[in-house]
Amino acid sequence: MKPVSLATAVVLATAGGLLTSAAASPASAATNCTSPVYKRQIYANTNFSGTAKQTACDAAISENWGTGAPASGVPKDNFSVRWSVTRDFGSGGPFTLSASGLDGIRVYLDGSRKISLWRNTSATVAKTVNVTVPSGKHTLRVDYVHWTGSAKVAVTYTPRTTAAVDKVRPLAPAGAAWNYQVADGRSTAKLSWAANKEMDLAGYRVYRQAAGSTAWARIGTTTTARRTFDDTPPHTGQSYRYQVRAYDKAGNESAGTGALGPVPTRDFTAPAAPVLTVTSSVDTNELSWTAPSDAVAYSVFRKQPGDTEWKEYTPETTTTTWTDSYPAYGEVYEYKIRAYDAAWNHADSAVVTGRTTIAVPRHVTATTPDHGAVIGWTDPAGNDTETYSVLRSPATSAARTWAPVTCGSRKTATDASGATVRTCTDSSGHRGTPYAYAVIRKDTYGRWSSPSAEIVVTRPGDEVAPPAVTGLTAKALEYGVRLQWHASPAADLAEYRIYEQPADFDTPSYVGTVDATRTYAMLRMTADGEQKRYVVLAVDRWGNVASYVGDPEGDGTYWDQPVAAVKVTELDLRPTAPAPENTACDLDAIPLASGAVQVDPYCYGSRFKEADGYQVYRWDRVKATWTRLTDAPVTAPYWTDTTAPAGTTLYYLVSFTNADGTEAFSNVDDAVTGPAT
């Protein structure tokens, strides 16, 4: 419940549009309230008639009297309260009015009703409306009537500050003033201005303009609470003017204040640095440079790289060229130009080097075939070249460390104009690494030229081997082993290489190569039950592949990167019965492309000859016995088994007939037939 009389009332003062508390006059004297504080009047009736029972000042409308009386001499039911305030809204703009409470509430702007909640209610009622407030001063009035029950009321007005809604610029700051002070020859502008009346003010921006210019450049921003700004402008001898603008929370910016100034400055600013160029010939270094707009004179300085002091030439020249006529041939000289303005401020150019030189190679080009970098150039006219050297430097940084290249191939040709064109192929260096190249030449007098213009080349490819293949499996078949794996993800894959390596520490033996389109290999071999271990490596088009390095560190690492390996035990299709002792000729069983097997005994140094006639036997795995394939002795040098099963391992032997009618047998030999197509 609000007390009957207030020792003090709360009033508000404006600070950049924000409300802050300030001490008020005693309630008995608070009939005039300072904007933006409300004047509150409480009546002992519901029609605001007669003399108010209490008049006071409120910073805000937010009351909850409950079921009690709002002031002495006022009943707890059937009373009314009126608040009113007249304030400056600055540039105006979009606002939100909100009201809530119990019983009757009406809100007026300049006498125009904007909210009406006028009824006796036991439940809280509320309403919010958007309004546009014109610029300048306007009056807000709130009427509240309480009939019975509990009494409470709240009313607010707030600016709408989103950029999509608020398009109204703030008013320009008022009361702008300026002055300047000089210390150590430098002028500092001192600006001030009055608080802006905008309720949604975000701050102030300060702009500067040089004499003779129409453009304003923003140089600073202040908060709503800070309304002063100091600036020491560039001391170029010009004068400067200033302007202050207000901006709101939606980003709208006001017009500027009137120009504040001028603030004069002395010229302490050097001219722009000239841009120096040196052109070298056999006998001279020719200097030329740009002329900054306010430069009136120049000095030329020269030294050699090992010197610590510069020597000045032609001080205070007004030209923008100079010829160094006496440099030693082939020596490097450093030059710089100093530009002076009328106030004798000065600036130096960048240091540029010159080196007297015979004509340098021209039109340097580069191509990058897979096998290296081919550098080409054209000799200068005159045909006085004795030899040349191609220089190379890593180009990963600005600094160059030149070294001569050993040309893997040198070629000389003549172009359509009759000029000599030369090339050098550099096959060294790393793939994927950028290199800079330049060419120097020596004439018939033994003078080396300066380097040509450089050209940067990145050799194609890389030096990273593809990752280990995945999904490697091995399956034993009657006619060998089938290896299979997942396709390598390497974009530059060229092929797969297969090695047999019984153990990690064994040197791998090359088996064969599979092109990049296949992910399997059929290794045709005798199914004799051996255990095998295979390694499959992916190879890219640049020849990068994992390498076997042994175990120099003793840490069990035998390849320079992980590899895929698989073990497999072959099927064992060898004869299960012992073969007869070899007492006759030797035998070769040779699989043919047709699928047949050629059985070829050879009897050098034996008492038997092929022409003596021989019988051919083949091991029958089903019957577990040697089965004779021939009906009569064969007297030809070889015999062809056209009944050989496809896709398996076969074992053969031949026999000759001794004088006593017994058989003498050859050795056993195997033949592996391919699968049926």
Model description:
The structure is a single chain. Strands 4-3-6-11-8-9 form a six-stranded antiparallel beta sheet, with no helix packed on it. Strands 22, 23, 25, 26 and 27 form a five-stranded antiparallel beta sheet that branches. A hairpin with an 8-residue loop joins β30 and β31. The N terminus is likely disordered. With 677 residues, the protein is an all-beta fold. The protein has no helices and 50 strands. The chain has six domains: 150 residues, Jelly Rolls (Sandwich); 88 residues, Immunoglobulin-like, CATH 2.60.40.10; 80 residues, Immunoglobulin-like (Sandwich), CATH 2.60.40; 97 residues, Immunoglobulins (Immunoglobulin-like, Sandwich); 97 residues, Immunoglobulin-like, CATH 2.60.40; 88 residues, Sandwich (Immunoglobulin-like). The relative contact order is 0.06.
Distance between the termini: 106 Å
CATH top level of the largest domain is Mainly Beta
CATH homologous superfamily label of the largest domain: Galactose-binding domain-like
Strand order of the largest sheet: 4-3-6-11-8-9
What count of structural domains? 6
Which value, in Å, is the CA radius of gyration? 52 Å
Q: Which stretches of 5+ consecutive residues score pLDDT under 50?
A: 1-30
Structural class: mainly beta
Q: Note the overall shape.
A: flat
Give me the number of helical elements: 0
What is the CATH T-level topology of the largest domain? Jelly Rolls
Biggest pleated-sheet summary? 6 strands, antiparallel
Helix content: under 10%
Mean pLDDT: 92
**Any guess at the CATH architecture of the largest domain?**
Sandwich
The number of distinct β-strands equals: 50
How much strand content do the residues show? Answer: over 45%
